[in-house]
Amino acid sequence: MDKIRTYNELIMLQSLPLDIKIAKSKQRIRETINEFGIEHCYVSYSGGKDSEVMSHLIMQEYPEILHIFANTTVEYPETYERVREKKNECNLIKIKPKMNFKQVVEKYGYPMFSKKIAGNIRTYRNARSQKVKENSYKYMKKHREKYIDYLDCPFSDMCCSKLKHGELQKYSKKNGYECSFVGMMAEESQQRKDSWLSNGCNAFGRKGEKQSRPLMFWTEKDIWDYISFYNLKVNKLYSLGYKRNGCMYCGFGVQHEFPINRIQRLSQTHLGAYQVFLRNYSKYFDMTGIDYKHIQISMF
């Protein structure tokens, strides 16, 4: 029988001292290696602070473990720089998708609002029957009414699948890997909280490739405290005021970013990339009314 987890249990875990969290995370890591064998596990390395901490935790006991960086073709320059450095520090390979970000957007739609909302919009727009279309509309009306006016917009959740997760899964299946270590935390979204409730840290019961998420009960403060204590090298992007790395032009969650969003910050920190955005992707923001105009900001 699967363990029943609760939000109160998650809150309790999140409130633990960092040294106890470290011990618990290392135990989750050992359980994963014991379950699948190190030759069948890999670290999904993004170049961000969370995967940096996770990598450090794992390599203390398993320094030979493979790291895989999935190049989505629109990572920040600082991320590519950190990946090049990381390659000299561990066993790391890079994989690249068959399509680039622009091609995926043109074929499937732009990643906007959230994966769930964009996925529902994609389902609605590509429905092969009236019943599917009606069900998509009803779901949006009931659960995401705020976004119902965008059902006919060319938005989609396919970027992650085509540029990152799908490529990682194909590579791992081809090369005999069964489980990935992923640096995610439950506090980052409701969807991740729900994922922890369903699967815990070691999601071995999920369909397809299994996952170990040893940082699920950590907080943002824990991450930075760990980085400070061990003096870890991290992506320079954080020194420019960014909270996360990832794809430069991703629209997931951008509507919640105040007082400035990631695209406005891009206009200050990476002018060339911002101009590419203006030429190719600003039209999708125009559809939503989300501001992307250049503004004067303090990066620190």
- Helix and strand run: HHEHEHEHEHHHEHEEHEHHH
Largest sheet: 6 strands, mixed
The CATH top-level class label of the largest domain:
Alpha Beta
Averaged pLDDT? 95
| Low-confidence runs | none
Q: Strands of the biggest beta sheet: in what spatial order?
A: 3-2-1-5-7-6
Structural category is alpha/beta
Termini separation (Å)? 50 Å
Number of strands: 8
Tell me the radius of gyration: 20 Å
Q: How large is the count of helical segments?
A: 13
How much beta, percentage-wise?
A: 5-15%
The second-level CATH architecture of the largest domain is 3-Layer(aba) Sandwich
How many separate domains? Answer: 3
Helix content: 40-55%
Describe what is shown at a glance.
InterPro entries: PAPS_reduct_dom, Sulfate_adenylyltrnsfr_sub2. The chain has 300 residues and is of the alpha/beta class.
Describe the structure.
- By secondary structure, the chain is of the alpha/beta class.
- The chain folds into three domains: 1-100 and 158-241, HUPs (Rossmann fold), CATH 3.40.50; 112-155, no CATH class; 248-300, no CATH class.
- It is 48% helix and 9% strand.
- It contains 13 helices and eight strands.
- The protein has helices at residues 7-14, 18-36, 49-59, 77-87, 101-108, 115-125, 130-143, 158-174, 190-199, 220-230, 262-269, 271-280, 282-288; strands at 41-44, 66-70, 91-95, 112-113, 179-182, 202-203, 210-212, 251-252.
- It has a six-stranded mixed sheet with strand order 3-2-1-5-7-6, with helices on both faces. The chain has a two-stranded parallel ribbon with strand order 4-8.
- Helix 3 (49-59) links the parallel strand 1 (41-44) and strand 2.
- Helix 6 (115-125) packs antiparallel against helix 7 and helix 11 packs across helix 12.
- It is globular.
- The model has no long low-confidence stretch (mean pLDDT 95).
